[in-house]
């Protein structure tokens, strides 16, 4: 299936190695210095481009966490032409380090993933110049992203904005009882710069 230039651009913008050092230097109280890796994986190729993501604190790059899968596909909706569906690896530890060592994730198959039904984003597109875009991804109003991890029910709020060189992530953990953010982008987005494609 041929993909639109917008979907291909989104995948290109999201893929790579990202760092938020500049943000942590400006506001070290609220932002931890992170490295984020996002690498393509060869699953759902018939209708999607799929990306593996994980991150690590800069002082412990050998201990990446938050392994997740993002499936990007076209919706046919002109307002939000792309959707991002999240999946969780059944064994995140098996894939740990796959962002910086892509050979660890190339044999990943869809049967080793758990679909996270409420963890979906609608992506809108703004064309900045010919073939140059800004993408904004937000959850649908009715979506509630919850899943079980290590026996606990976890709720998160997801979102991002991305251009060719910058990525802002709005992911945060939510207390299911109070609805308040408990970790992540509490004071605003994490602002990453792409350091390697």
TrEMBL record:
Transmembrane segments: none
Keywords associated with the record: Lyase
Gene Ontology process terms (BP): protein-tetrapyrrole linkage
Enzyme class, first EC level, given as a word: lyase
Coiled-coil residue windows: none
Pfam families to which the protein is assigned, alphabetical: CpeT
Entry's EC annotation: 4.-.-.-
GO MF entry, a single one: lyase activity
Keyword Lyase: yes
UniProt cross-references to InterPro entries, sorted A to Z: CpcT/CpeT (IPR010404), CpcT/CpeT_sf (IPR038672)
Family designation: Belongs to the CpcT/CpeT biliprotein lyase family.
Function according to Swiss-Prot or TrEMBL: Covalently attaches a chromophore to Cys residue(s) of phycobiliproteins.
Name of this chain's protein: Chromophore lyase CpcT/CpeT
Organism encoding this protein: Dulcicalothrix desertica PCC 7102
Native organism taxonomy: Bacteria, Bacillati, Cyanobacteriota, Cyanophyceae, Nostocales
């Amino acid at each position: 299936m041929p993909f639109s230039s917008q979907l291909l651009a989104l995948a290109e913008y999201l893929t790579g190695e990202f760092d938020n050092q500049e943000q942590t230097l400006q506001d070290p109280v609220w932002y931890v210095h992170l490295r984020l890796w996002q690498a393509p994986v060869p699953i759902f190729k018939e209708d999607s481009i799929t990306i593996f993501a994980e991150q690590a604190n800069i002082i412990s790059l050998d201990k990446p966490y938050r392994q997740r899968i993002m499936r990007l596909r076209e919706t046919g909706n002109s307002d939000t032409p792309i959707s991002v569906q999240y999946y969780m690896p059944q064994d995140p530890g098996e894939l740990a380090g796959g962002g910086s060592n892509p050979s660890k994730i190339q044999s990943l198959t869809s049967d080793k993933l758990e679909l996270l039904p409420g963890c979906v984003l609608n992506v809108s597109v703004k064309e900045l110049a010919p073939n140059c875009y800004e993408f904004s991804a937000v959850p649908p109003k009715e979506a509630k992203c919850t899943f079980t991890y290590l026996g606990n029910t976890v709720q998160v709020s997801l979102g991002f904005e991305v251009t060719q060189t910058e990525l802002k992530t709005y992911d945060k953990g939510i207390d299911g009882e109070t609805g308040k953010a408990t970790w992540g982008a509490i004071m605003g987005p994490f602002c990453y710069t792409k350091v390697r494609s």
